[in-house]
Amino acid sequence: MCCDGDCRPLGFLLGLPFAFLSLLISIVGVIIWIVGLLLTCICPCCLCVTIIVELALELIKAPIHVMEWFTSQIPC
């Protein structure tokens, strides 16, 4: 049966709309990351740009975190 491991299809299905929204947010994160990297190359002494790039990386990882959270909340 599926309940032995981490297979939780209900949590996966319920999390899909939220993962789609997170995917849109992660696209914004990719754009911020690219702009931040370009600004870091121009002026590497700017600490605030580095913080923005780190925030953008977390935005990029958002869909994965959302799906993991949803699948962990719903039992088999």
Overview of the molecule:
There is one protein chain. The protein is an all-alpha fold and 76 residues long. It has one domain (23-76). 79% of the residues lie in helices and 0% in strands. The chain has three helices and no strands. The radius of gyration is 17 Å and the shape is elongated. This is Signaling peptide TAXIMIN 1. Keywords: Membrane, Transmembrane, Transmembrane helix. InterPro entries: TAXIMIN_1/2.
| Number of helices, counting only DSSP H or I runs of 4 residues or more | 3
Provide the number of structural domains. 1
Compute the average pLDDT. 75
Amount of helix: over 70%
Write down the overall geometry. Answer: elongated
Organism: Linum tenue
InterPro entries: TAXIMIN_1/2
Keywords: Membrane, Transmembrane, Transmembrane helix
Transmembrane segments: 12-39
Task: Give the helices and strands, then pairings.
Blueprint: H1 9-42, H2 47-60, H3 62-73
